[in-house]
Specification:
Layout lengths: L2 H17 L7 H6 L4 H50 L2 H19 L1 H6 L2 H20 L2 E4 L12 E8 L8 E6 L1 E4 L2 E4 L2 E7 L1
Parallel strand pairs: 2-6
Antiparallel strand pairs: 1-4, 3-6, 4-5
């Protein structure tokens, strides 16, 4: 290497030293420059432990928030499903007046028997179709005859005098049928109850 090249290299090294002067960013870092390597490692381990603790705290918080979100989503889906099950309740209750009309027609035996048999078969078929459609939407007819009267489930419209003590408080006739929608009673049956004198 020539003398000129050697002087150029020394000049470049000086320039690099001036350009890359080590600067401490905080008071803590300034004080660590004069420390022994073991003390610096100890300080770094303590900082690492603090950082790991904070990281775990943030991770736990994030996992709790994620679990809360998942639970909230499940509850919302459940509520949406319940809403959907009962969304048609008003419409189905209006259709029940048609079911009542069919049942009144069937209960008038004298007039029903006078109608032509083909016509009766057609009307009974329409009634059974309507009943299946309603059942498909979760609307079920409550069968009450022979059950003990329960004021929570039944509405009494008349007490019928009876002689049999075993039928006291038992439903003997249904004036209008009751219905449940997905297990929830949406219309109580109106019934006649047997009563001893």
């Amino acid at each position: 290497m020539s003398k000129q090249e050697s002087e150029k290299k020394e000049s470049a090294d000086r320039q690099i030293g001036e350009d890359f002067e080590i600067v401490a960013e905080s008071d803590e870092e300034k004080s660590s420059f004069g420390k022994k390597p073991q003390d610096m490692v100890k300080d770094l381990k303590e900082k690492l432990k603090v950082c790991e603790g904070e990281r775990q705290e943030f991770l736990d918080g994030w996992q709790r928030a994620k679990a809360d979100f998942i639970n909230a989503r499940k509850e919302e889906e459940k509520a949406r499903g319940e809403f959907k099950k009962f969304a048609n309740e008003d419409l189905l209750l209006h259709i029940l007046s048609v079911m009542d009309s069919f049942e009144m027609a069937f209960s008038n035996k004298e007039a029903w028997e006078k109608a032509p048999q083909e016509w009766r078969i057609g009307v009974e078929y329409i009634y059974s179709q309507l009943k299946k459609i309603l059942e498909g939407h979760g609307l079920l007819q409550l069968h009450s005859i022979g059950e003990r009267f329960n004021p929570i489930v039944h509405e009494s419209v008349e007490l019928v005098p009876i002689d049999d003590a075993g039928k006291d408080g038992v439903i003997v006739d249904v004036v209008s049928s009751g219905y449940s929608l997905h297990g929830k009673v949406v219309r109580v049956p109106r019934v006649k109850v047997g009563s001893m004198k």
